[in-house]
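Continuing from yesterday's entry. The apo prediction looked reasonable, so today I'm repeating it with zinc ion included to see how the binding region is handled. Same sequence as before; SMILES copied from the compound registry.
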Amino acid sequence: MDGKRVIGVDLGGTKILAGVVDHDGHVAQRREHPTPTGSQDELLAGLDAAIEELLEDEIAAIGFGLPSPIDQKAGRALQAVNIPLDESVDFRGRMRERFGLPVGIENDANAAAYGEFRFGAARDVESMVMLTLGTGCGGGAVIDGKLFRGWAEFGHMVIVHDGIPCQGTCTGHGHLEPYVTGVAATKLAHAEFGPAVDAHRLVRLAAEGEPRAVEILEGIGRHLGSGIGTLVNIFNPELVVIGGGFAAAGDFVLDPAREVLRREALAQAGDRIPIVRAELGTAAGLIGAGLVAFDAVE
Ligand SMILES: [Zn+2]
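Holo prediction written out below.
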């Protein structure tokens, strides 16, 4: 397949990011469109249009990162939270038929982890787990060089029995997500400093040395460390990568996470497994979708 290129599509709740991806992870003709959220038909038409403007003779396959759990056997997206897409559509089959090309689909956070694994912060290791901290908390894992194709919804692991309610439509309690996202940080910041201080402002206050801001971020980091400890004990990765907008909190959150990891991980794994920030930024999902497309060819 050398020399061939694919189309990667990262479907988000607010925008469709699409581009032509080559074997080295380079993205050409990167395009951004607002996500049509009126109905499933409008959404699919928006995806069709985004792909059509990138189609050329060289294109070997199409890959999608979708914001929902995926049924890989059926090739369908299961109930997405923020967009009108559900299992009533044979998503992979429909796209194959429409464009006459191999099609791969994957959860968007899994795709981002795949991108970071091949071309970002984890390019020198064989096994990694990634958590994305944004509005929600997503996750993905690559084990022995292969993307784990399961749900990998790491944000919904229980870290506190009977803890606070989860975010969005999740009915769970004490899941990792409501403790570690930017939304969680904004909530805590509002309670401490009033409505003018959101997650970004909170990080700035911590950088200026405001002790309560530092403390709040440390609390978030310790919860994150609990979640990472569990992931390390299951997957024994070589590296843990933290991405998403709230990763901007950096060591204010990651240092306490490292401390907790040292305590929770088996066999002193916390001393040898680094927790680092993602490197590809918003391109990770798009590049990962491209990799999913290359996998669909093989
Ligand atoms: Zn949950």
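Comparison notes:
- The first helix runs from residue 40 to 52.
- Residues 148 and 272 are 22 Å apart (CA to CA).
Will overlay with the apo model tomorrow.
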